[in-house]
Amino acid sequence: MQSRFRSDPRLTVRMTVTLFLLGLLYVAFVAALIVLLKSWVLVVVVAALLLGAQYWFSDRIALYAMHGRIVEREEYPQLHGVVDRLCAVADMPKPLVAVSDIDMPNAFATGRNADHAVLCVTTGLLRRLEPDELEGVLAHELSHVAHKDVAVITVASFLGVIAGLIVRFAFYSQLFGGRGRKDQNTVAIFMAVMAVSAAVYAISFLLIRALSRYRELAADRSAALLTGRPSALASALTKVSGDIARIPTKDLRTAQAFNAFYFTPAFGAEPGIAKLFSTHPSLEQRLEQLGRISAELGEAATPENTA
């Protein structure tokens, strides 16, 4: 079913190309491991099982990792009310609503499709945002579900995890299974496996980061157009980014592994070439886009809209 979130053909193309390139990359990776390790059954079976588990249970894994829990309307009526209204406007199924009891202001959506999605916000976000700002953030997260990029980024990100696990298996199988046969040939195989895995990880890392940055801009754009209040989303972005900067670094590092799924990253985008490694575009880039949309919509830049 097509939602009323404005489609983004460029996002669709980027997701397709990224998955295609990653697919080719990992087929070549697994093939290389099979040739080098001379054992294809375990490599293929383990990779397939792990990928399937991540695809089918990604929502539960993410909630568990972020200490989130599903909440009912009676407990968080305002939150459910905003989600209900947005889903009605967007004409899409309502996801499960969850809350994570942490102070870091943030939100994320996860799940393999619109019928099996979870929208999670932190209590830190709920405490800090005004109703129209919260609506903008939730619309942003729902657009990820509507565009199906949640599932794509979940699968794409996990391929790197699979590669890492396969490499560990290769390492330990050579370390503990060599039985004294650790000759030059064994060392050469081990080095070849590590070289191939390093190249695969580097390429996949850059592809995923590039897709992640664009999908955040696409979600901002779709949310602003659906709600008709880009200034509210801009205000939420500014407020959340500023407040995250005041969260203790040790707490942010715990959440950093999930940056690609968050509304805003635990650590802000870096300048210069470091931008290539960021999961999100810079705050300035996001605000600039929202400013253009606001001008296109003729939204009045009044104190009420920008507070």
From TrEMBL:
Topology in the lipid bilayer: Multi-pass membrane protein
Residue ranges annotated for the Peptidase M48 domain, each copy included: 77-291
GO CC field: plasma membrane
TM helices/strands, residue ranges: 12-34, 40-57, 150-175, 187-208
Active site positions: E141
Residues noted as binding Zn(2+) in the record, renumbered to the chain: H140, H144, E216
Localization annotation: Cell membrane
Cofactor, free-text remark: Binds 1 zinc ion per subunit.
EC annotation from Swiss-Prot or TrEMBL: 3.4.24.-
Keyword tags: Cell membrane, Hydrolase, Membrane, Metal-binding, Metalloprotease, Protease, Transmembrane, Transmembrane helix, Zinc
One MF annotation (Gene Ontology) recorded for this entry: metalloendopeptidase activity
GO biological process: proteolysis
Cofactor(s), names only, from the UniProt record: Zn(2+)
EC supergroup of this enzyme: hydrolase
Family membership: Belongs to the peptidase M48B family.
Xref: PANTHER family: PROTEASE HTPX (PTHR43221), PROTEASE HTPX HOMOLOG (PTHR43221:SF2)
Name this protein carries in UniProt: Protease HtpX homolog
Organism listed in the record: Streptomyces olivochromogenes
Lineage: Bacteria, Bacillati, Actinomycetota, Actinomycetes, Kitasatosporales
